[in-house]
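Posting this for the archive.
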Amino acid sequence: MLYTYHMALKRKSHKNPPSHGLWMDIATGAIAAALFILFALLMPKI
């Protein structure tokens, strides 16, 4: 637990800017939403 927390802190304070993780979350959410909408639109045809 403590080791994982320490690694997370070390990774968060790496060279990457703080906004990098935020952009990854936004991109992942957008892709998931697009796939969900596509799936919802294709379902009635099946």
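The chain has a mean pLDDT of 76. The helical segments are 2-12, 19-42.
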